[in-house]
Amino acid sequence: MATLTETVADALRTKIYAGEMAPGERLPSEPELMSACGVSRTTVRRALLQLIHEGLVQSRQGVGYHVRSVTPLVWVASRPERNTRTDISPADVWSAGVREQGREPREDIEVGITVPPARIAARLQLGEGEAAVVRRRDRRVDGEIMLLADSYYPERLVGGTAVAQPGDVLPGTYAVLAGLGYGWVRSRDEITIRMPTREESARLGLAEGTPVGEHVRTSWAADATPVRVQVCVLPGDRNVVVYELQEEADEQ
Q: Which among 124, 177, 185, 214 has the fewest CB atoms less than 10 Å away?
């Protein structure tokens, strides 16, 4: 049997999902909800807190509760990563997709050399203590942080190249690797849905209870050398990941 808190939360949730309460719209005040639902202020606050944890409602100091307004970003993850532009930054395929949606991409980049976590080292087939160049990016859309993208490359391959230098790489890290004879020709994606770490929550400004998708892409050159591992952390309420697959007809 549902508790009073669940009953109030369900009623508000239903209205939000039905579109009866639009994104950005102010919810009834606590006294109004108390009167309409015949419950105590404590019950109302618990119901509202539950909706905040679900990412449906946000609290604005001094102005009450509002339906959360977020326009999810569509990322077509199956598009080939072959940047050729040098006249705009960022210019990778993700950023091009953002602009196609009438929005503006930006990224904050931090570059360093590190001994990566074991799971990254294993995918890159690094020896014990072997270093990787990591490019950490906070990716923003219209000023709002949308995802984290950390890319690791074997330092023995890219050390001294533009990949290991601060700032954007034009026309892209693929072009640098291709020039070295290590352009990737195959990638494998792994997607996990989980709760964020404390650091991720802080970097992404997540509402409590918001899950994230972790997208790990490992890429190999033609000789089967692993050349990159990219780890993206995407807030579940801000992103839609799409794959487009070409199905070939069976031969008769």
A: 185
Chain mean position to CA 44: 32
- Please give the distance of CA 117 from its chain centroid, rounded to a whole number: 20
Shared domain for 210 and 86, answered yes or no, is yes
Structure tokens at 94: 């993700």
Cβ–Cβ under 8 Å, residues 84 and 56:
no
- 41 shares a domain with 129: no
Q: Which two tokens stand for residue 87?
A: 């006249």
Q: How many domains does the chain divide into?
A: 2
Beta strands in 103-183 (DSSP E): 105-114, 132-141, 144-154
CB 95 within 8 A of CB 105: yes
Half-sphere exposure in the Cβ direction for 18 (13 Å, CA): 7
Distance, in Å, from the CA atom of 243 to the CA atom of 246, rounded to the nearest integer, reads: 10
Q: Residues 133-161: pLDDT tens digits?
A: 999 999 999 998 999 999 999 999 999 99
